[in-house]
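Input for the complex:
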Amino acid sequence: MSLSASILVLLLLSIAAYWYGRRYSLRLVSGDRRRLHSMPRYYGYYVALSTALPGLLMLMVWLFLDQGVIIHLVSAALPEPVRQLPPDELGLYLNDVINLTLGNITSTADDAAMRAAADHYRHLLFISHVALFLVVAGMVIGGGLIALRRIRPDFRSRPRVERLVKWLLIIASSIAILTTVGILLSVLFEAIRFFRIIPITDFLFGLQWSPQMAIREDQVGASGAFGMVPLFAGTLLIALVAMLVAVPVGLLSAIYLAEFAGSRMRAWAKPLLEILAGIPTVVYGFFAALVVAPALRGAGESIGLQVSSESALAAGLVMGIMIIPFVSSLSDDVINAVPQAMRDGSYALGATRAETISRVIIPAALPGIVGGVLLAVSRAIGETMIVVMAAGLTARLTANPLDSVTTITVQIVTLLVGDQEFDSPKTLAAFALGLVLFLATLVLNVLALHVVRKYREEYE
Amino acid sequence: MSKLKAAVKRRDIREAVEKSLEARKRRNRRFRLMGLGAVITGMLLLAVMFASIGSNGYSAFLRTEILLDIDFDPAVIDPDGSRGADVLMQADYTGLVKSSLRNYFPDVKKRKQKRALYRLVSSGAGDQLRDMVMEDPSLIGSSREVWLIADDDLDQYYKHGKGQSRLKEQQIYWVAMLEADGRLRKVFNTTFFIAGDSREPELAGIRGALMGSFFVILITLGLSLPLGVAAAIYLEEFAPRNHWTDLIEVNINNLAAVPSIVFGLLGLAVFINFMGLPRSAPLVGGLVLTLMTLPTIIIASRAALKSVPPSIREAALGMGASRMQTVFQHVLPLAMPGMLTGTIIGMAQALGETAPLLMIGMVAFIADIPTGPLDSATVLPVQIYLWADSPERAFMERTSAAILVLLAFLVTMNLLAIWLRRRFERRW
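Predicted:
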């Protein structure tokens, strides 16, 4: 852990720099603060930031790049026959070289050439670390000294520090955009590589999904079927079951708590329902696989129905339980946003509570409720652990909830968990599915936010 | 219309209303009951879930032990009498256990039967003896009674009876003999909390997963709190209204609703394949969860900043503070409790998250307890997922127990958040 140690050292150095810079500024004016442009601590901040920031940045950039450069140099120095290997075998070879350096077991018998390469690698790594140390130390000392030399009583240290801090804040807030771009690029690139092997129309409209075939017959994508229609259908089936549970229960309990229940019942019932939202999805998955699915199977058998032990019904039911608080808290928000005057008007005309709710409040809150349901659908489509643990693996195009179906997220997990080659269509297919998932939820979210926002404008 | 209205007399209206009133009230009651039913359904589902997990899991906090007379035979442990550490390390302690069992049941002669007999004691019993000897070499040559960990099949039988167990008739007979002699007991299962993962249920523990979770959460907290607070401060206090900040805002709202598994794909493609960070490392898990929890923290922090009244800012600015000083010295301290509440909720979300960590390889069988954020590790929810896949009934028990531990952590964090909100939140 030399990285955390060096960051710690940088941190300690910057504290020292703060302390020294502050004292230095005071000494310049022989203790008379009023002659300084800014408060003494800003001179301290200035020196501390100039000491630590450039060095820290250098450290990050260097560590980000050095592995790649060293690997490149090592592979350039490899003997000719090794360099002629196809890229993935070369990658394996280089991996072995690195393993040898670390003292791990290699996957192939190590030979003299590999040991030489490992020595070369170790040597380069050593050079890189020494160089990094010298450069960072130089930047730290240089930055600190330059900052100290600039300090004069009339040096405007506060505006400078504040400008720098503001830039740091801007960078922090841009991470959200970087994340979105990162998601899009990473998923898109791999998906495009996938579509070079499997035509996009086959992927979007194919009725067969059996990615394992391609691996077994060792043919790149020739016989594996990558049609995502059954996956999408399975996802929608489970989401539909979940919605059938979550929407009535969630909506009715929100209405009850908002319109009928007394304040004391609200005070304890709402947090209790929200506990459901805080339970990790893996717990729901365990509950679905070990309690609900066997129970449903048993119940089905007792009335002569064939229920799969990985039925869409079990996964959907439990997913519905998970989504109840989501639906209820979103509907609670919109129901409470309906102006009290509308209720009062309805009561004044002699309507009962139920009539007020069904003829006034629900129509008024409908856009918001629809928006909430759309968000809940997007949550159901993207939910992973429940379906991984309780739904099936084989893709089947069926509308029978007692049958076993598989979903997009289940397939992403099964394709990517375990050993994988990064270039096989099987692995790339996971990213193509990820792209579909991302786009589907994106559309649902944007739609829902749009509906909700439009509704809110009407009453505020 | 007016003709019709005129025709309806006052009394008719009242009659019509009174006639329908009963039905309308009934409908109102029905609606009310339906609402109450929905609330109760929700609670009931919660209760069923907790009850089934609790009733499955509590027994994993106990383990069964067998009392055996162990003869620390010098001829087996240390034939040369050298007392060298590696000699003691590699001695055949399992043999000691086996010979003790043979002495206790002298009539077991057949090879197959003997094997069944040895299977009553955990394969970790030898390690238990080794640890005793390593700690106190003077034990060698003595003979004493030792409580040894029982095998999971015996453990299940002893806890739950015959229906839950894979023990054979013969083994059940031996267990009955041991029990009659008072040689079986149930004690608090310390292994569960101090051991890493294992293929043997009775030796498996959650320590490794807890340490993995600890490192992941440490990194997530260390990155997402400063970044989230900084982003919120910029967006709420400094950002001009323009396309760039609009774009950031839309992005944050959207990221909050992106499925978590997509963040896992991002981590796999960017952190592991592009940057070359190690697979299965808590560092990568922390980075992925940071990106995932950032929107939550930013949104909560912005709400906290928004709730600080403008008069505070105006007063500070009026006293000649710069905008930066106003924010960092006056607004931020007042908004901090709200921000911390949001952060704790974000951390609770990160602690329970599984799917993105599966993508970055934190799903391997790892018996060693990780010591740093670059070691291969798994986290508590993933450990639950892994154990849930194991067929042994004993693992199901441990899965439930691990869930109970996870839920205990989450409840503590949420209570902390609630306490923080009650204690420090001010209303203006």
